[in-house]
Design goal:
By secondary structure, this protein is α/β, with parallel strands linked by helices. It contains 20 helices and 14 strands. It has a domain of 197 residues: Rossmann fold (3-Layer(aba) Sandwich). The protein has a six-stranded mixed beta sheet with strand order 4-5-13-10-11-12, with helices on both faces. A five-stranded parallel beta sheet has the order 9-6-7-8-14, sandwiched between helices. A three-stranded antiparallel beta sheet has the order 2-1-3. α7 links the parallel β7 and β8. It binds pyridoxal-5'-phosphate. The site of pyridoxal-5'-phosphate has 16 residues, from α12. Pyridoxal-5'-phosphate binds next to α12.
Length: 433
């Protein structure tokens, strides 16, 4: 199947090109030319199947023309090595826990699947594949851990010195093997600029097959649809199901829209945001008005120009009424978020992280107006990842999972790098050769 750019449906590329390029040359995002609709018998069979099996069948429907079945099965099995449990925290309110992977956030699903696809593409490529990733914290850890030990692929993580948390830093500076961390004497924007300049640099591109693994990559989006099918299959009553998705760049929500397009009977989506409410505002007013991002306690959702909006609009033929029929948007303040964390902890003895709390709030608000519905909110990160906010809000100690402790014990290894491109290039070349 080919993939078109959201800026021009006639400009199509293969899956390989879409994955290696990430962004289309016209700056559009890649979308599959057609989204297969699965038969009713498929949905009837889901409750009896494992997460891996469900994921494989969804992946097969989307990618069967591009990846041989036995390869695809291996990729899925290497991606889904941990569960995504559905926990009923109140009547008709379910938390879909997406934080049981190695870096304790849902981004593990996308990063791990993309690494499998890329290493398969790498076999046919003579040059070494080098992934450059600029990170302000979380993306670097998910990508580095996803690609750790993958043959034919090297990862270089660029991060701003002194501007990521200790735990975040440890998650990509202690790995070794094919992962290198460059500690840039500058800001996150400097890191991003260095990556952009690298893609334009002739010398680097002659030597290496450079690619990025940022969140707009279609290979990260596809696996995020798997857990919507799985979650739905684990509900006892599967009618009138709504999903509330705490959103920043809207990749997670878009993956849900794709699942619905494939026939999954999701009645409605709730786009839950913090103060960065560009999409809820669009749904209210019909005007899409990107703004500089504002800092909140749910900082992984502090996005002022959500990149996947282009895909959402594409799925609904740019029609506001179409999109409103399927998605309702709500925004919540930091105070509301913390209050929800406290209330849920007190009433249900369940610890929400600030992002999951925004999802919870959106779901509750929707259910209060639609009493016949039942809902799932995506719990996108483990509360221990946002330890300061969570402990401060709940006045209690959060238990840190063993795999997070292991990172903290490791020895940080990073290479200092100035924000000057020429310096960066010479380091990159000496590192990678
Ligand atoms: C990235 C992230 C989000 C936002 O997901 P999008 O797909 O960008 O909307 C939400 N919560 C956490 C914990 C994240 O890391």
């Amino acid at each position: 199947m080919n993939y078109y750019s959201t800026n021009n449906k006639k400009s199509t590329v293969s899956l390989k090109e879409a994955v290696l390029k990430g962004l289309a040359p016209d700056k559009g995002l890649y979308m599959p030319e057609s989204i297969p609709v699965l038969p009713e018998s498929f949905f009837d069979s889901l409750p009896g199947k494992s997460f891996q099996q469900i994921a494989y069948e969804v992946a097969h429907a989307l990618l069967q023309q591009d990846v041989p079945a036995d390869e695809l099965r291996k990729m899925v099995e290497h991606t889904i090595t941990f569960d995504a449990p559905l926990v009923e925290i109140e009547k008709s309110v379910f938390s879909l826990e997406l934080f049981h992977g190695p870096t304790l956030a849902f981004k593990d699903f996308g990063a791990r699947f993309m690494s499998q696809l890329l290493s398969w593409f790498a076999k046919a490529e003579k040059r070494e594949i080098v992934i450059l990733v600029a990170t302000s914290g979380d993306t670097g850890s998910a990508v580095a851990n996803g690609f750790l030990g993958v043959p034919g692929v090297k990862v270089v993580v660029l991060y701003p010195s002194g501007k990521v948390s200790d735990i975040q830093e440890k998650q990509f500076t202690t790995l070794g093997q094919n992962i290198t961390a460059l500690e840039v004497d500058g800001t996150f924007d400097d890191c991003q600029r260095l990556v952009k300049e690298a893609f334009l640099d002739e010398e680097l591109n002659k030597e290496f097959f450079l690619t990025s693994a940022n969140s707009i990559n279609i290979a990260r989006l596809i696996p995020q649809s798997f857990y919507y099918f799985y979650a739905w299959s684990r509900l006892k009553d599967r009618s009138n199901v709504v999903f509330s998705v705490p959103s920043g760049n809207f990749g997670n929500l878009t993956a849900g829209l794709i699942a619905k397009r494939m026939g999954l009977p999701i009645r409605h989506f709730i786009a839950s945001t913090n103060r960065n409410d560009i999409v809820p505002e669009y749904l209210d007013t019909g005007t899409f008005n990107p703004k500089p991002s504002q800092a909140t306690v749910s900082n992984a959702m502090d996005v002022g120009n959500p990149s996947n909006f282009a895909r959402m609009m594409d799925l609904y033929a740019n029609d506001l009424n179409n999109i409103k029929a399927d998605i309702t948007g709500y925004r919540f303040s930091d105070d509301e978020t913390k209050q929800a964390m406290r209330a849920v902890y007190e009433t249900s003895n369940y610890t929400l992280d600030p992002h999951g709390a925004v999802g919870y709030l959106g779901l509750k608000k929707y259910l209060s107006e639609h009493t016949e519905a039942k809902g799932v909110f995506l719990e996108t990160a483990h509360p221990a990842k946002f330890l300061d906010v969570v402990e401060d809000t709940l006045k209690t100690e959060v238990k840190i999972p063993e795999r997070l402790k292991q990172f903290v014990k490791g020895n940080k290894k990073s290479i200092p790098c100035s924000k000057d491109f020429v310096h960066f290039r010479s380091i990159a070349i000496s590192l990678l050769k």
